[in-house]
Amino acid sequence: MLPLSLLNAAQNKPMLVELKNGETFNGHLVNCDNFMNITLREVYQTNPEGDRFWKLKECYIRGSTIKYLRIPDTLLDSVKEEQGRAREANRGSRGPHAGGLGARGGRGAPLRGRGGRGAPLRGGRGRGGRGA
């Protein structure tokens, strides 16, 4: 299961975020991006010692500072089931040539010479050949 697909499914759900410095944030996920930067709303922030609390309307957390995320187990189970159904649907919808090889067997056009630039592999002058 991919973490970003799980985060996308967790939008508007409660979650706990612990940062590498020990601070924790409890709130509802508003948004996330491909760098795992997240926005939370209705947030309770706790300092690393756990003795001070702040209530925030909304906060933005950079993904590189996150140590871990905790989401409800029910959400994790539902995402697993949904991905399993999608996987089964993809298997059933593929034809006899599953795998996407195409009409040419997935090999594409043959390469000629080095780097496909049309130079011969042996013989001729230049490009590493022996010359005549």
TrEMBL record:
A Pfam family (short name) is LSM
InterPro entries in the cross-refs: Lsm4 (IPR034101), LSm4/Sm_D1/D3 (IPR027141), LSM_dom_sf (IPR010920), Sm (IPR047575), Sm_dom_euk/arc (IPR001163)
Coiled-coil intervals in this record? none
Matching entries from SMART domains are given as: Sm
Keyword Membrane in the entry? The reply is no
- Where is there biased composition of kind Basic and acidic residues? 81-91
Its biological purpose: Binds specifically to the 3'-terminal U-tract of U6 snRNA.
The subunit structure is: LSm subunits form a heteromer with a doughnut shape.
The UniProt entry's sequence similarity note says: Belongs to the snRNP Sm proteins family.
Q: What is this protein called?
A: LSM complex subunit LSM4
